[in-house]
Amino acid sequence: MKKKVLIVEDDVNISELIAIHLRDLEFEVDFAYDGQDGLMKGSNGNYQIIILDIMLPHKNGLEVCRELRMKDINTPILMLTSKSEEIDKVVGLEMGADDYLTKPFSVRELVARIKAILRRTEKQVVGAGENEEIKVGGLVINRTKRFTSLDGERIELSPKEFDLLHLLSSNPGATYSREQLLNEVWGYEFSGYEHTVNSHINRLRAKIENDMNKPTYILTTWGVGYRFSENI
Hints:
Blueprint (H helix, E strand, L loop, with lengths): L2 E6 L3 H13 L2 E6 L2 H10 L4 E5 L7 H10 L6 E5 L4 H9 L4 E4 L4 H20 L6 E4 L2 E4 L4 E4 L2 E2 L4 H12 L5 E2 H9 L7 H15 L9 E4 L3 E4 L4
Helix pairs in contact: 2-3, 6-7, 6-8, 7-8
């Protein structure tokens, strides 16, 4: 069965160039040329990956990414942009993008990034039986269903928030540095973007902790990183 990819890019020449190389890898390719159409297709289509430009008509890529994640669409997203400003990288990652590539880029690099994202996705599926459901105090984390509840009430988490929580809770007491969490959850070393981890941890705590100042589940190991409490 062919893998399906959605290319959301308003430059037809770039879209076609990407598509030629992905078809050579036996991908089935769909296109969207504006953000609104990209959001609609990304919400309804069964894609293995979405290639999403930031600068789009009607709705920009950052908005599309955010709205897809709000709809619990966990399809991996590789963002493209002609901008090189750091703020776009930070915002894109914090909204749930899986990787980021700045134009101009080589098609070889794009293909390598896509392959790396798909390898990580397939690895997560293969390992889904490991620690399938974790129950700690009032917290339940089901990896297969990507479901989290606290005291019987469902907690809505973004894909990266869920991945962080599952990783930490799978190894209670083990401290992870911010660099390790970037590597494990985002899938590659993203040196200099430790604040992305911090912001995700803060949002995660806001959803599962009764007192942000005295967290029960996700603890800080000062000067190092974060750990999941082993004393619950």
